[in-house]
Q: What sequence folds into this?
């Protein structure tokens, strides 16, 4: 019995759309990309078997509309929809619309997306699964906080329960400060959010961002594909990622992987996901941050280090076929690093730029992989995020991978737009980065030197 | 709003027209067994001047889509075109057998409804977006269309 050739609808743009088209080809499926009018001539559209224009350039009227994507899937005769990252990838509405049409969604179930979709419910799921979370206490009485402060430990953050977007947060380093600031913070929270309730949370001022790649079978079974360090960040935007995370003891790695496995089992998680943690550099603490219920930008480092294809596996799982993913050891047999090349000018406060790119030259050599949406002559659109390309390098160990990546960055040319390449060069050449792990605060502290001038 | 008797298509059309002229972003209405959802997608008046119509590269190698996707015709007309404001299924008439919203020879204003685009059971009215006289329709009733595809052509403006 021969099954009909599956049809994959790609509900995304940029480099990840091209990546999904490649995975569709790899599994012998037909690919259809749903694009905005600005992306009709994108690399993904050129590589796909078919293209459907769903709306105008504005993402709010194209890529962010679940019903347009579902309609495109119906019109394309799609078997499965892959949402990529961002846009609709974690919106339960798209999965539900597709479910009604009998079209598979290459991602977790809608109820999983809801359970991990906000920090409060994700934290509750983590606690129930026995995953370590940052110590936190609700304040009952702002005049009696000494005991709570001692339980949480210093430094700590006072957070307004109804705050958000970084507002209503104060850093406290001593008990005396807590006594002084707690009543003040309550008054301010009352004024700003109409609710003066406060929460104390342990603050990690020098922590690393380490995340675990999981792949769940949807029944509680989990495959763990090692970990990634993504601590080189500018204002919470990752610049460089690597697999495995360097300088992690066997015991800590076991906590990271076992916690992630417990979360996958508790959620009966389906498909590829990432469990993010803070790994403190000043104590032994490891705390859960969040679950990213999608494929991530930095998935290729895991693929390269372990020799797997996560995107193809997502499609195969959604199609009800064997994924072919192996059971792997905690540490991969190779080291892989990824850098993000963004159309931003590091010497001008990372101002984004757009326009026709020319003279695109990629590095060549063993272990080099390029995931991109650009080539020479491509008109880089101004409407979307600035990620032009990801450069991934694999080598036998971290030192070799860092050296190979530095050479690869120096042998990459993209003209005439300003890009983050000079910045990546500076980080890769920096003795702190070459020596091993850095905390997430590192880039900000060295930004002036790394961007070659103004902080 | 709910009502016991089953509505005629004219009732629904009147409703669509009423809602089109209102400020509502979206509305859901049920009449007995029938429910209708309408959503406004904004910026409708500018659609006639829609950007980048899908050219030859759109609808590349149409193999066997579930619905017929019209190939974007080459725009070789002297008159202005009314293009699809979104992907979906285009209907020229409120129901099978009913009169079309507008026919060739009819004068239209920017807010004249010329058809409906259905997206996952949501009915989106399509307005002319410009003033003129309909010369011809480029797609049949019930055709799956992409964003930017020409739906109708207008007579060239008088010199």
A:
């Amino acid at each position: 019995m021969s099954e009909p050739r599956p049809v994959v609808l790609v509900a995304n743009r940029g480099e990840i759309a091209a990546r999904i088209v490649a995975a569709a080809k790899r599994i012998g499926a037909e690919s259809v990309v749903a694009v905005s009018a600005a992306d009709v001539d994108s690399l993904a559209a050129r590589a796909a078997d078919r293209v459907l224009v769903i709306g105008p350039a504005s993402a709010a009227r194209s890529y962010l509309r679940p019903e347009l994507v579902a309609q495109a899937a119906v019109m394309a005769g799609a078997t499965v929809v892959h949402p990529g990252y961002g846009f609709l990838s974690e919106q339960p509405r798209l999965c539900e619309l597709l479910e009604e049409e009998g079209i598979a969604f290459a991602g977790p179930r809608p109820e999983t997306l809801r359970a991990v979709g906000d920090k409060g419910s994700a934290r509750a799921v983590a606690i129930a699964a026995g995953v370590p979370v940052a110590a936190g206490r609700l304040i009952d009485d702002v005049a009696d906080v000494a005991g709570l402060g001692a339980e949480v430990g210093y430094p700590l953050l006072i957070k307004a329960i109804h705050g958000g977007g970084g507002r209503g947060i104060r850093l406290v380093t001593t008990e005396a400060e807590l006594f002084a600031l707690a009543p003040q913070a309550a008054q301010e929270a009352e004024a700003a959010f109409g609710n003066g309730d406060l929460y104390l949370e342990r603050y990690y001022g020098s922590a690393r961002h380490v995340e675990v790649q999981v792949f769940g079978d949807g029944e509680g079974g989990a495959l763990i594909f090692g970990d990634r360090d993504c601590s080189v960040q500018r204002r919470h935007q990752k610049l460089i990622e690597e697999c495995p995370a360097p300088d992690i003891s066997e015991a800590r790695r076991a906590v990271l992987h076992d916690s992630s496995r417990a979360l996958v089992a508790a959620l009966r998680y389906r498909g590829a996901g990432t469990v993010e943690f803070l790994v403190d550099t000043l104590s032994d603490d490891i705390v859960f941050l969040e679950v990213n219920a999608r494929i991530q930008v930095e998935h290729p480092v895991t693929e390269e280090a372990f020799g797997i294809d996560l995107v193809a596996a997502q499609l195969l799982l959604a199609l009800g076929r064997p994924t072919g993913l192996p059971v792997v050891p905690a540490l991969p047999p190779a080291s892989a690093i990824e850098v993000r090349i963004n159309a931003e000018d590091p010497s001008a406060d990372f101002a984004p730029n757009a326009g026709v790119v020319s003279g695109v030259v990629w590095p060549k050599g063993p272990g080099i992989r390029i995931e991109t949406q650009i080539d020479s002559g491509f008109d880089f659109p101004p409407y979307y995020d600035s990620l032009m390309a990801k450069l991934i390098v694999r080598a036998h160990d971290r030192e070799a991978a860092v050296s190979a990546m530095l050479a690869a960055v120096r042998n990459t040319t993209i003209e005439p737009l300003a890009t983050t390449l000079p910045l990546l060069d500076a980080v890769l050449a920096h003795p702190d980065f070459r020596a091993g792990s850095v905390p997430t605060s590192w880039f900000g502290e060295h930004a002036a030197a790394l961007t070659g001038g103004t902080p | 709003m709910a009502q016991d008797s089953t509505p005629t298509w004219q009732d629904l059309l009147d409703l669509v027209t009423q809602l089109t002229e209102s400020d509502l972003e979206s509305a859901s209405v049920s009449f007995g067994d029938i429910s209708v959802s309408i959503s406004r997608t904004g910026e409708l008046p500018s659609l006639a001047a829609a950007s980048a119509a899908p050219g030859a590269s759109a609808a590349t190698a149409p193999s066997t889509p579930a619905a017929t996707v019209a190939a974007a015709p080459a725009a070789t007309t002297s008159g202005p075109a009314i293009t699809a404001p979104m992907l979906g299924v285009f209907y020229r008439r409120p129901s099978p057998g009913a009169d079309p919203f507008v026919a060739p020879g009819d004068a239209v204003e920017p807010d004249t409804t010329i058809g409906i685009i259905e997206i996952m059971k949501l009915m989106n009215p399509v307005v002319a977006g410009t003033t003129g006289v309909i010369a011809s329709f480029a797609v049949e009733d019930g055709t799956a269309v992409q964003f930017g595809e020409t739906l109708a052509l207008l007579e060239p403006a008088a010199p």
Remarks:
- Helices of chain B lie at 9-20.
